[in-house]
Structures are given as structure tokens and as C-alpha cells.
Amino acid sequence: MKFCIVVGTRPQIIKSQPIINELISRKKDFTIVHTGQHYDYEMSRTFFQELKIDKPDYNLGINRGSDSSQLAQIIKKLEIILTKIKPDVVIVPGDTRSALGGALSVNRLGLKLAHVEAGARSNDFELEEEINRRLIDNCSNFLFAPTLSCAKNLKKEGVLGSVFNVGDTMYDVFLNYKKILKLKQFSKEDFILMTIHRRENILDITKMKKIIDIANFISKHGYKVVFPIHPHTKKQIKNFGISTENIQITDPVNYSKMLILLSKTKLLLTDSGGLQKEAYWSNTPCVTFRKSTEWIETLKEKNNFLIPEISDNTKNKILHILESQNSKKKPLKNYFGNGKAANKIISILLN
Questions:
Q1: Domain ranges (residues) in the chain
Q2: CA torsion angle for 89, 95, 96, 97 (degrees, to 10)?
Q3: Of these residues, 115, 197, 232, 320, which one is catalytic?
Q4: How would you write the pLDDT of the chain (351 residues) with one tens digit per residue?
């Protein structure tokens, strides 16, 4: 049986790593295709190296042009490769433009499609990823849900493919690296970690000024703010002329370094979907600058706090969250499987 895995971004590489390891351990034939969506070294290639994933068999080199242009190129170029290698099943993880392009190309060729992280829903029509994931789910033969709530979403929507609640492959990777890095969930230090990259935030000068203002405010209350900055975010902050003098700006960090930071920080400020989960698994409180989240479990356990609109009261709310954290917190409830999601996925596909 021949497999093909399509990736294009940092989160997709992480989600695919345990699946790739599972295929290797079972000595199965597979091909990795990278669309090129994350072309910055620190955002892509370094993750292949660190996670010990072989260099992609194909790189489509698609990192320029409008959103629609990129999507069209992915579909077109991937069709040529898939026609050549003739896989029995194509696996697309996540909800990126690369995942959608992969899904549409596979569907048009009449091949079997497996969606990893199926059923996640924010119900926010303005998010590109929300539209992507819904389209992918509705043209997938195999839908691998990371949580029970995701599986319920798919059943409720009546998707045509087969739904399986297997757990989260990102959790597989996290558990493995937690052991490797000897991470401690309850050893927090006096610094705040921040990551901001979503378009609805970084393209809006008012929002960016407010977010940076919050970071500066926190730094004046005795907490160092560490900000590994996404290349696009860095560009926008410079264009807007926003001062970050009280913030420790760093280059993007690799997977291990991010997990170490998450395990040590007292609070995460973010708009990332994946980091909300990784903060949850690290027992680190998270403030998310978004209107909604796919990961309702993190809200349920009151480890994640949404900030849909930044108001005059937001700074005090964040300080309250920060100062009310108990260093003796109990481990949070697990909703994301047992660390063997990849094993279940490949077993299902082989059967």
C-alpha cells in the first residue's frame, strides 16, 4: 500500500511526524510532498531536521502570489505528482491552504483522502482555516478526529466519509518530547511568552498597537515578555512603526525550544491554534486574542481565555489571570487521546 503526505507549514510538519514514524516502523511505502507555503528556514526546514523527518521527496516551491493563486498552483502542481506516484491514500493534516489544495487535487483525481485533525470548528466565518477545514472534511474518505467533540461535529454535519476518534497526533509528539526534554509542568518562571501571527491581528494597526501595548504594560509589572516573532508579524510591526522597546524580541524558535518556553512561562499570549493545545498540555495558562477557538476543551478547563476585543479592562484581566495562578495546580483533564493516534490512523488505513 502506497501513502502520500502533503504538508506546507510548521504545524503540519509536527502533526505528520508520528505518522511518518509509524509508516517507517511498519516499512510502508510513502512519499512526502511539501508545498513550500512556509518558505522561511526557521518556519519549515528546521522542523524537518529537528523532528528527524527525511527531506521531502517533492517541494512545489509555492510561496508567492495571492491566496487564490497559491491554492491554484498547489492543485495544479500536486496533480502532476499524484498522477505520477499513484498513491493508494493521501494524508493531509490540519487546515492550511496547503491542506485544502491537497484535498481538492486528490478529490478531483478520484484518489482516497484522509484528513488528520478533522472536525475542529471555531464557527468563525472570517477565518480562512475554518472554511478550509470544512471543505476538506466534506471531500475526505477517512476523517480522523483529535477529540470527541470534533468527532461529534462531523457526525452532526453528516459528512460522507468515515469518522474515527483517534486522538491528536500533536499530542503524540508532545508526550515524546516531554520525556526527551524532561519538561516540568509546574516549574514556572517570571516571564511571559507571546506569539502573534494571524492576519486578522497583524494586518490591523489598531489591534497590533493594542496587543503590543498590553505586552509593554505587563513588562512594566515585573514580567519579562519573550516574543519569538513570525517574519510577517515582524514586517508589519516595522511598517506600522510600533515600538517594542520593552519586549524581548527573538527569531522564530524550533519545536523543542518552544516546548521548553511553554513549560517555564507563567502565561502564554497568542492567536495560534496549536499553541493553545501545547500550553494546555504544559499546564500553562493561555490568553488567546481571537473571537473563538477550535479547542473548546481548553476553555472548559479554564486554562484558556479568549479576548475577542481588546478593551480598557483587558490589561487588568490579564494581570488577574497571571497573578491568580497557583504553582501547585493539578494536571488538567486529558481530552486528546493516549499518545497513540498515529498508530491508530495507520492501522485503520491499512485495514
A1: 2-178+337-350, 186-323
A2: 70
A3: 197
A4: 999 999 998 899 999 999 999 999 999 999 999 998 755 545 556 667 777 787 899 999 887 788 899 999 999 999 999 999 999 999 999 999 999 999 999 999 999 999 999 999 999 998 999 999 999 999 999 999 999 999 999 999 999 999 999 999 999 999 999 999 999 877 789 899 999 999 899 999 999 999 999 999 999 988 999 999 998 899 999 999 999 989 999 999 999 999 999 999 999 999 999 999 999 999 999 999 999 999 999 999 999 999 999 998 999 999 999 888 755 567 789 999 999 999 999 999 999
Strand-pair category, 29-34 with 58-59: parallel
Q: With DSSP H G I counted as helix, E B as strand and the rest as coil, what are the percentages for the chain, rounded to 5?
A: 45, 15, 40
Distance between CA atoms of 58 and 54, rounded to whole angstroms?
Answer: 11
Q: In CATH, what class is 186-323? A: alpha beta
Evaluate whether 137 touches 143 at the Cβ level (below 8 Å). Answer: yes
Annotation marks residue 197 as catalytic? yes
Residue identified by cell 516573532 is 229
Ramachandran angles phi, psi of 120, nearest 5°: -70, 135
- Residues in CB range of 156: below 8 A, 6 or more apart: none
Helix axes 10-25, 341-350, angle to 10 degrees: 60
Per DSSP, the three-state class of 83 is helix
Return the exposure string of 6-19: e unless at least 16 CB atoms fall within 10 Å of the residue's CB, then b: bbbbbbbbbbbbbb
**CATH entry 1.10.155.10 includes domain 2-178+337-350:** no
Query: Does residue 268 sit in helix, strand or coil?
Result: strand
Task: Specify which residues 4 forms β-bridges with.
Answer: 31, 90
